[in-house]
Amino acid sequence: MMLLPRFLYGAVADFFATELAKDIKQVELNTQGSIVLSLAAKWCSSPYSPFDKTTLLYEDIACRFFPRDSDSNSDNDYVDRVREQLRHEVLVPLQSSLNSKSPKKNMPPHAEHLPHKIVQHLGTGQGMQQAPSQTERPCEVGRYG
């Protein structure tokens, strides 16, 4: 019964460690300006979040990303070192790369997915009359009475 949750836990940790390794390699090799990064750095567990205190997923990702050296003093020293190393060497650079990729700083991130923007990208022209009216005053339609 405990085999499946442990398998899923290990698979999630492996997935994040693999994707973070791919992303940091792309950032390091990037000489131009166009790179495609996964969102693993964005969705990776935070080191001191309540979720991580329960699951210790961040610790496991860090240990998989930076395998143990044979000259390590103790478990606590190794875990603390790789947690900080993952944060400083991997997550901070990747998160700053992800934040710098957004070209429209003053636009909310979901603005590209508004109904009238989606209809414009369809290229068919159907539904163009309805899109502005749906987004102009959405609160008027569902007023209190």
Automatic annotation (TrEMBL):
Chain spans, region Disordered: 93-112, 123-145
Record's protein name: DUF2828 domain-containing protein
Domain DUF2828: 6-99
Feature: compositional bias, Polar residues: 127-136
PANTHER family assigned to the protein according to its UniProt record, in alphabetical order: OS06G0652100 PROTEIN, TROVE DOMAIN-CONTAINING PROTEIN
Species whose genome carries this gene: Panicum miliaceum (Proso millet)
InterPro entries for this protein: DUF2828, UCP015417_vWA
Phylogenetic placement of the source organism: Eukaryota, Viridiplantae, Streptophyta, Embryophyta, Tracheophyta
